[in-house]
Amino acid sequence: MLTVGDKLPEFSVVAAKPGFNMPEENGESAFETITNDSFSGKWKIIFFYPKDFTFVCPTEIVEFAKLNEEFADRDAVVMGGSTDNEFVKLAWRREHPDLKSLNQYSFADNGSLVDGLGVRDKEENVALRATFVVDPHGVIQHVSVNNLNVGRNPAEILRILDGLQTDELCPCNRAVGGDTL
After folding, report:
1. Does residue 57 have an active-site annotation?
2. CA-to-CA distance for 86 and 92, rounded, in angstroms?
3. Are 79 and 66 in contact (CB under 8 A)?
4. What is the pairing mode between strands 12-16 and 105-108?
5. What is the pTM for the complete model shown?
């Protein structure tokens, strides 16, 4: 598994764009190819979940979505995904009331990112609940990985991003926007 200080590997995934529920809306495709060069100059929050149409995963996706503007205020793009395809992403958005018109990218990983980062569960053959905070230079600044059955705390990822962006020493439990050492 790649870790802090490692460069984000080369990858290419297809993502359902924010706000889309159908493959095409108003003559515009819902899909966009995202690579390691996408979103130049921005921080990237890349989070994996095991499967679409499951129970823990939407709770995390919704919490990231609630914080999306705060991430955007910090020049960060939030991207969540699994190894299910892009059409499944849109179907899940249509079927799950909390995911309709989702305000973040939902990527379908054919293996280039999950395997490049080393976060595929060997027994279930799905992505672990891994989160990567990547700086604008493509360098990983934070990694956390949970087992398949335990959801993560998106507010903690925001807190970590906020701390990383201070470029200062940040004490334990420092709140977003809090004092540095």
Report:
1. yes
2. 10
3. no
4. antiparallel
5. 0.96
Task: Give the whole-angstrom CA distance, residue 102 versus residue 16.
Answer: 9
Helix (H, G, I), strand (E, B) or coil at 78: strand
pLDDT surpassing 90 at residue 150? yes
Long-range contacts of 91-95 (CB under 8 A, 24+ apart): 91/52, 92/52, 92/53, 92/58, 93/16, 93/20, 93/21, 94/21, 94/22, 95/53
Could you give the count of Cα atoms lying within 13 Å of 181 in the half-sphere of its Cβ?
Answer: 6
**Residue listed under structure tokens 């529920």:** 21
Among 13, 57, 119, 130, the active-site one is 57
DSSP class of 82: E
Q: How does pLDDT run across 3-41, given as a tens digit for each residue?
A: 999 999 999 999 999 999 999 999 999 999 999 999 999
